[in-house]
Each structure stands twice: as structure tokens, then as C-alpha cells.
Amino acid sequence: MTNPLDERLAALAAVDAAPALDGLEDRVWAKVRTRQAAAGLGSAGLRVTLTLAALALGLALGALHPSRPAHLSELGVLSEDGLLAPSVRLGGGA
Q1: What are the φ and ψ backbone dihedral angles of 78, each rounded to 5 degrees?
Q2: What residue spans of the chain are helical by DSSP H?
Q3: pLDDT digits (tens, 9 = 90+) for 43-77
Q4: Eight-class DSSP state of 65
Q5: Contacts with 77 (C-beta within 8 Å, 6 or more apart), sequence order
Q6: What whole-number distance in Å separates Cα of residue 52 and Cα of residue 40?
Q7: What is the DSSP letter of 79?
Q8: What pLDDT was estimated at residue 25?
């Protein structure tokens, strides 16, 4: 007794169903280039906007904050004796 599933699988195996791959690579690369071009145009404006916003925020915070007197405590911390500097020991350093 033959199994209908076996017959169907044998018939399916006998079918020559090779996909047509001619020109597939060219179509794929064309779609990739199209998507890259579309993504590049949209993100360029966003990058410029974010850069200008960061610059404006930095300038606004720099202009609105009262300037503190410059001190050289960072130089004391970066030296080899930095942890012994009085400004660091008293809590006024970086």
C-alpha cells in the first residue's frame, strides 16, 4: 500500500522549480542605494538641527551663568602630588 504523502513528496521532488536569479543582485543593490539616499536626506537636516540646538544651549548656559573666578585646582589634582594639595585636602578642589 502506498502512502499518499510519500507520493506527493516524490512528485514535489521531481518538479524542477529553480528560482530565476538573473538580475537579482542588481535589483537588491538598486533598492539598497535608494534606501541609503532616502535615509541620508532625512538625517542631514536632523543632524544640523541638533548641532545648532546644542550650540545655542551651550552659548545660552555659558552667557547666563555667572562666571566663577578661575582657579588652578585641576592642575593640582593632575600633578603627582595632587592628593596632597591644600585645595583638595580642604574640599575645595576638583
Answers
A1: -85, -10
A2: 4-14, 24-64, 73-78, 86-89
A3: 778 888 999 999 999 888 877 776 655 555 555 55
A4: S
A5: 83, 85, 88, 93, 94
A6: 18
A7: S
A8: 94
